[in-house]
Amino acid sequence: METEYKQAVDIDVSLAQNGDGEAFGRLIHKSKHSLYRIAKSILDNEHDVEDTISQTILHAYAKICSLRRNGRFHFWLVKILINECYAILRKRSREVYNASITAAQDIYEDNYNDHELINTINSLKTDQRIVIILFYYEDMSLHEIAKTLEIPEGTVKSRLYRAKDNLRSMLDNSI
Question: Of 21, 70, 106, 140, which has the most beta carbons under 10 Å away?
């Protein structure tokens, strides 16, 4: 089953690289929940999440021919998304926000029901939160996370360890 999925992705990537917009759409459709979850873990503003995902899709569509290994499409897309998220954060740090602006309602609602855990994860520092999301929600290996974030694997391990430790202590304190 897993190999059939990978073969279908490889075929869609090849088709998309040859200009097939429908194949590209299928690839994005398969990744939409992951993109949202990762962007939401980095950005807290729903509008920024939407903008980042849109920019990621546009960037990926324009650069899909530069993808060398078709089987790495998802990781390549996640890397673009993370770079777009950090660009938004850099831009936001230079802007002054009006405190009366409220965020829009969530367009996508994750089916995971443990709101206490989700809120606790969201309260982690961004570098720890993204590692937790990539490792546990996206099932990426430490090596894949390191390549995606362009940091050493040891840094990923230590962030993951600190994040789990922080989660454990925050959840213990809430009981």
Answer: 140
